[in-house]
Amino acid sequence: MPSSHDYIKDKRNKKIKIFINNKFYSRDKAKVSVFDSSVILGDGIWSGIRFHNNKFLFLKDHLDRLYDDAKKISLKIHLSKKQISKILHDTININKMKTDVHLRLVVSRGIKSTPYQDPAFTISKPTIIVIPEYKQPQDNIYRKGLVLKTVKTIRGPHNVQDPRINSLSKLNCIIACIEAKKQKADEALMFDINGNIATNNSTHFFYVKNNCVYTSTGKYCVKGITRQKVIDLCKKNKIKVYQRNFKLKDVLKADEAFVTGTFANIIPVKKINSTKFNIRNNQITIKLRNLYLELMER
């Protein structure tokens, strides 16, 4: 069964150099303290970024989101966006990478004096980590499509753990993922607090009906970079697109469905619960993916 994050294994990843706080380490020696906020509390933020044909894709968007998320959790990043950008470029350069690279950029609140929540017990600057890997999606995911199943775990309210923040605390999504896997699905299709479809556990959800594209309001999902690019592509290419609330019954009457994410861009959905979709007739999905691939080359 395919997954939205299935990738082609690459032997070069055994020799990658990983950035941690101004130093580069080999993969087997890249470690953080057991007192780091990321380890003790999952306290921090992150972004997944693609490096394609000697350039970062939508780097400004990723850094803007990172700093916005940091502000929301009162995490002051001690480096500027320009300095973070340089770290990313240095990481690519020291690894002599050219394309087909996925980088995980992590910013934790830093080292704690003792395992405790209060940020006042943080005794270092934020921990900055960049993990670069050669990663290409498995080709068969685009041909076979994904299976989604609805789950009991929902995207919670903003005053519990804001689902719009791309935080290291991903337990909500992990539990949803486990629920989906137990149902032999590739990903979980998650509801919001009002019973509307919100998003998936690790990608963003879209459906197509009568040549119109629909996605959620975005109030209960991470601010997806690829998601926004797809919305922009729809508007630019005169494809009607709506960001609104909708129910599962609307989704099950769709003509097409697809998911978006930084890693694999646009992937068709072949089944939601017991409802099947003929992905060979996914004209809008195919058109949008081709437009997105063109955007990557600009």
Keywords, separated by commas or semicolons:
298 residues, alpha+beta, D-amino Acid Aminotransferase, Chain A, domain 1, D-amino Acid Aminotransferase, Chain A, domain 2, 2 domains, nine-stranded mixed sheet, six-stranded antiparallel sheet, 9 helices, 15 strands, 29% helix, globular
> How would the global form be characterised?
globular
| Structural class label | alpha+beta
Query: Any idea what the CATH superfamily of the largest domain is called?
Result: D-amino Acid Aminotransferase, subunit A, domain 2
Named at the architecture level, the CATH assignment of the largest domain is Alpha-Beta Barrel
**What is the name of the CATH class of the largest domain?**
Alpha Beta
Helix amount: 25-40%
SSE sequence, one letter per element: EEHEEHHEEHEHHEEEEHEHEEEH
What is the CATH topology assignment of the largest domain?
Answer: D-amino Acid Aminotransferase, Chain A, domain 2
What low-confidence regions span 5 or more consecutive residues with pLDDT below 50? Answer: none
Which range does the strand content fall in?
25-35%
Largest beta-sheet details: 9 strands, mixed
Radius of gyration: 19 Å
Query: How would you state the average pLDDT, rounded?
Result: 97
Question: How far is the N terminus from the C terminus?
Answer: 33 Å
Total individual domains:
2
Describe the structure in your own words.
The protein has helices spanning 37-41, 59-72, 81-94, 140-144, 158-161, 171-182, 225-236, 248-251, 283-297; strands spanning 17-20, 23-26, 44-52, 55-56, 101-108, 127-134, 146-150, 187-191, 197-200, 204-209, 212-215, 241-243, 256-261, 265-272, 275-276. The protein is α+β, with helices and mostly antiparallel strands and 298 residues long. Strands 7, 8, 9, 10, 11, 12, 13, 14 and 15 form a nine-stranded mixed sheet that branches. Strands 2-1-6-5-3-4 form a six-stranded antiparallel sheet. It is globular. The mean pLDDT is 97.
